[in-house]
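Allow me, if you will, to draw on your knowledge of protein folds for a short while. I have a record of one protein: its chain in single-letter code and its fold written as discrete structure tokens. Could you please explain, in whatever detail you think fit, how the structure tokens follow from the sequence? The record follows directly beneath this note:
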Amino acid sequence: MRSGYYLPIVAVLLFGAMIARALAATIQITTTDLVFAPAEVSAKVGDTIQWINTDVFVHTATAHNGDFDVMMPPKTAVTSVLTRAGTVEYYCRFHPNMKAVLTIAP
């Protein structure tokens, strides 16, 4: 096959990836005063969660089902991309009273 045959296929794949990236959202979840806010969030697979820790304590966002375990140093922001659909209850390993729910649509 000629190399020109692959160019349209590559263009379609790149265009599809650009559209998927454009449709993805960035959702902010903040830890303030030992609380996740908002406590209930809806998102989609492919969305980015920006975890913002405004506290002076280290926090985690640890999924009960093992889907993610994000470490958040004090006064920083970190990001993670959602890869699986479902309802995920999560908490802080260092402050187990900090609890929230993330509902992820396909």
Summary: The domain at 3-105 is CATH 2.60.40.420 (Immunoglobulin-like). The radius of gyration is 18 Å.
